[in-house]
Design brief:
The complex is a heterodimer of chains A (126) and B (181). Chain A is an alpha/beta fold and 126 residues long. Chain A contains three helices and six strands; from the N terminus they run βββαβαβαβ. Chain A has one domain: Transcription Regulator spoIIAA (2-Layer Sandwich). The longest helix of chain A is centred in the middle third of the chain and has 19 residues. Chain A is globular. By secondary structure, chain B is α+β, with helices and mostly antiparallel strands. Chain B has a five-stranded antiparallel beta sheet, with helices on both faces. Chain B starts with a helix and ends with a strand. The chains are: A alpha/beta (126), B alpha+beta (181).
Chain lengths: 126, 181
């Protein structure tokens, strides 16, 4: 049981992963030029977590902006969560979008269509 | 040759250019430019919706330039490693214009890719995006051919581009993206 976190920067999000509570949060902006390098540690942690997950895993995705380079990495993260959901843990992905931000809502719906994990679209005030 | 700086200024003024740059595109430069543009959009008190769209599309346009220059091998001369971009606003419409050298041998492939995107409707762009996202190969730097599809999708407009011949090896590729309110 450990708590892992990456502090946010103007181009990368804050990541909090509390494996003891089965809680993962990605929050802020994800617009790095090289997103593979940035997301690699998270994908590795999820790989490790998948061997001994909590019975329920909650994931909050609260992004203000993300670039297309990040979009593939986020998909990789979701694919890991899909595998965890198929295994012993019940996963829910909460996709936050600001009121009026249709692009962010659509982006969430795109993932929802590709990934076989329950999604909840959560609207927040601007 | 004497450079007439007023001539430059006047043209930029008439086109309402908010920011322009010519030179090598680095990660640090993009961080600064994005910060400047964000505060300019805040000062103009744009609606959050427009602000986000302009910012998102700008990120994709500038990172396209960055990844493109990254692909140009180091033995190329400085001229080829240089690019230009301008951001302006005329009558409630934002314009993002980028320009970079491209090898003549790469024109056909890029032209076909952009022409194909321009044929798609809004719904088809959404499906194409999902297809490339889930099946597409990602380059080692993370670019995956999604940028142009995303720009077309978010702006809801055709990609306006041009190739100007330079010499027997290179042409200059320009892209003019419009974002309307």
């Amino acid at each position: 049981m450990e708590k892992i976190s990456i502090e946010g920067t103007p181009k990368t999000p804050t990541i909090t992963f509390d494996t003891g509570k089965g809680f993962l949060e990605i929050k802020g902006r994800s617009i790095p030029e090289n997103s593979i390098e940035f997301y690699k540690p998270l994908v590795d942690w999820l790989e490790k977590y998948s061997t001994k997950p909590q019975s329920i895993t909650n994931v909050n995705i609260q992004l203000e902006y993300f670039n297309t380079s990040s979009s593939k990495c986020i998909l990789d993260v979701f694919k890991k969560l899909e595998a965890i959901n198929k295994g012993g843990s019940q996963v829910t992905i909460n996709w936050y979008y600001e009121e009026d931000d249709e692009d962010m809502l659509e982006a969430g719906e795109d993932y929802q269509a590709i990934i076989n994990v329950p999604f909840k679209m959560v609207q927040v005030a601007e | 040759m004497m450079l007439n700086i007023y001539d430059f200024y006047d043209k930029m003024e008439r086109n309402n250019i908010m920011l322009s740059f010519k030179g090598d595109i680095t990660s640090e430069l993009l961080t600064s430019v994005l910060q400047i543009m964000e505060s300019k959009l805040d000062n103009l008190q744009e609606e959050p919706k427009i602000k986000k769209k302009v910012y998102n599309v700008l990120v994709e346009c500038l990172q396209n330039l960055y990844h493109h220059l990254d692909e140009v091998s180091a033995d190329q001369n400085d001229k080829v490693r240089s690019a230009i971009f301008m951001i302006g606003k005329i009558d409630n419409q934002y314009n993002i214009i980028t320009g970079n050298y491209i090898k003549n041998t790469n024109i056909e492939g890029l032209k076909k890719r952009l022409d194909d995107i321009n044929l798609l409707t809004k719904e088809e762009l959404k499906e194409y995006y999902k297809l490339v996202l889930s099946n597409g190969e990602m380059s080692s730097k993370g670019g995956g051919g999604l940028g142009m599809i995303d720009i077309a999708r978010k702006t809801g407009q055709k990609l306006n581009f041009n190739f100007s011949p330079v010499d027997d090896k290179y042409s200059f590729f320009s892209l003019n993206i419009k974002i309307s309110q």
